[in-house]
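We treat protein structure as text, and this decision shapes the records that our systems exchange. We quote a single record here, exactly as it is kept in our systems:
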Amino acid sequence: MKLLLIDDHPLFRDGLSMLITYRLSLPGGALQVLQAGDLTQAAAVLAEHPDVGLALLDLSLPPDCHGVRTLERWRAMAPDIPVVVLSGDDRPDTIISAIDAGASGFIPKTVQAGVMQEALSRVLAGGVYLPPLPAMYAMHDADDWDDDLDDDLPRNAMGLSARQMDVLRLLVEGKANKEICRQLNLSESTVKTHLGAIFRKLKVNTRTQAVVAVAKAGMNLKA
């Protein structure tokens, strides 16, 4: 599997690349970490390596990429590649905004090395990592939220069908309904039906809440 690490600090890139290469692994084979200092370099790397499977993206890329706008530009450039945000800004508003914009997870740069390793391991295993969020932010865009979510969701598929897991996997990757339809060869009405069932089982009302629920449950979404 190829990962693309996009960050403007070479020392951080080198250190994280070493952590990923030498401390983390996947059952299916070795990990190859590619690097880019900005989105222009990232585009050049993708042209040479179209089989990149995951991007790790800093939200602040000088001179003109800052905040969620950076993520939006990446998603426009590479809509089919799941992306996890790496950022020194770990305010809850920033985290929720990143998930709203299609990030599959959020790893603060402020975490300890051991937490970083755990977070990357979870992401590479098909899960989602988010730092703890105050309850008021977990209720983002919701009329109702189950306060017992942490206790209610087991670390498994919760009875979701194989097709519902496929839909959930693509939802977590930030895919829109039409993209899910195309990739799974399903009608839009069928996708909406699956999403409704997924939301009920996760006890959520929105896509953002679904990503938060997956992170809290420690679910593995690998096919």
